[in-house]
Amino acid sequence: MPLLRDADLAAAFDRAADHYDLLLAANPGHHTQLRRSARRLGLRTPGTGLRVLDLGCGTGGSTAALAAVLPGADITAVDASAGMLRRAARRSWPRPVRFVHAPVERLAEAGVHGPFDAVFAAYLLRNTADPDAVLAHAHRLLAPHGRLAVHEYALSGRPAHRAVWSAVCGGLVLPVATLLGDGPLYRHLWRSVATFDTAGQLGRRVRRAGFERVRVLPLPGWQTGITHTVVGRRPSAAAEGAGR
Question: In the chain, where do the E strands start and end?
Fold first, then answer.
């Protein structure tokens, strides 16, 4: 089965939106890991006056992590799936969050404009047809010295970690998703990880997009070697000008 892309993937997420959080609840440490990646942005707390963009917010798990770590920040959360956004908007938020229904390449048309102090992208890049274009958009939306954090299933490259990923998907996630009627989406998600960048390749991809101080950071627990945070920073305007 080919990977789902663009409108087909958004439609699959729409159909799965009502069950999505149920499956996430079976992932030990999911929300803790998102908060860890949000802290790795290295922004001052409580984030008062900062503008933060959550790309691919889904049902709001990543948005909640940002709101917990940066309770004073102004957060804009974006997703291409209307169904997932409806779930996110129904959550109780301690302060208003702006939710926008748009793919990354059409953010300007949807009224989303920089500069942002940070961009957070959780489980997004491997689900896009052109990850480099998404990173380029993120780069343009950031202020000089603005921070990027990519929280992603990106395997270490070691066979043991690939085996764990396949075992978890084949033994738990896919059977449950199939019972819920969401098998095609979760087969896509399983394969999207297996065919995407390793953690090291993802770090190099972020550097090629023009980010500096790029680090690839592991996450603990069963996700060790499976999920990573890649952080980076947009260079100063002077540095970018000198590099042209």
Answer: 51-55, 74-79, 98-101, 116-122, 142-153, 212-218, 227-233
